[in-house]
Amino acid sequence: MEERQGACSPFCLFGAAAVLLLLFGAGCGSGVGSGAGGGAATEERPPVGADQGPGSEGRTAVLELDVQVYLLHSDESAALTTTLAAADVARVFEGVNQVWSQAGIRWRAAEPVRVEAPTIGALFEEVLNEAGSGRLGLVASILPPERISEGWDVFFIRDLDGLAGGVYLEGISAVVQPEVNPWGIRDLEGDLVRILSHELGHALSLPHVDCPPAGNLMAPACRSGIRTYLTDAQIERARNQAVSGRPHGSDG
Fold it and tell me: How many domains does the chain fold into?
């Protein structure tokens, strides 16, 4: 998970988040993504099919991963109710696949399904207005449990009110992805593509890394170099997870 710049962000959340998860009956191992502050991201992305250096010869086979996509709605919470349409989701995954083409991985997004969030919308709004990173512990409880699978799941909501750009819930292997970045900007082809690509990196077992001069997809709030870049070691690890046929941390 990527947090807003200047915050500390472990790959798996414990402490206060774990307490909240016990209250709401969900486990959390998460990645949070922040977008570029104050405007759209204009970074360069790795070209489709680009040779990423030594060892890339063995990555010619494209691994295709089916991902279920859900658009959440709540009568009690505007923050939970995404305004994305199917065409928007298609645009986002087109960009995500451009990012992940450097690893020879393609996400096959199913037709988005609009679903009702559990009836905790009012509580979710209340918690968003509180201080502290423990608020992330509530995120798992906003997902309809009958929609959570052992495969690749992405749930779009409207906003996490600056708490995070996105969250990967390791225990249930699901991505919760706001359509706006932590500054409230709706940037479908910039921040949203990069942050969702980052969260899917967690689903492919990639932890956070420090911000290198070359840039890196898994470096939280990193402004250096190519912000979607992956190293050979990261690519190998991600492909190994993809070959396993299930997300990292899946309980199944």
Answer: 1
Rounded Cα gap, residues 145 and 162, in angstroms: 25
User: What pLDDT sits at residue 50?
Assistant: 42
Q: The tokens of 237 are what?
A: 């690890």
pLDDT digits (tens, 9 = 90+) for 122-181: 677 766 666 555 566 677 878 888 898 889 999 999 998 777 889 999 888 899 999 998
Spell 100-124 as b/e; 16+ CB within 10 A means b. bbbbbbbbebeebeeeebbebbebb
Domain assignment present for 10 = no
DSSP type of residue 86 = H
For residue 7, being part of any structural domain is answered with no
Whole-structure pTM value: 0.77
Residue 134 belongs to domain spanning: 16-34+62-244
> Could you tell me if residue 11 is inside a domain?
no
Alpha-carbon span 33 to 30, nearest angstrom: 10
pLDDT tens digits along 172-197: 889 999 999 888 889 888 999 999 99
**234 occurs within a structural domain:** yes
DSSP string, 148-184: --SSEEEEEES--TTS-S-EEEGGGTEEEEESS-TTS
Alpha carbon distance, N-terminus to C-terminus of the chain: 22
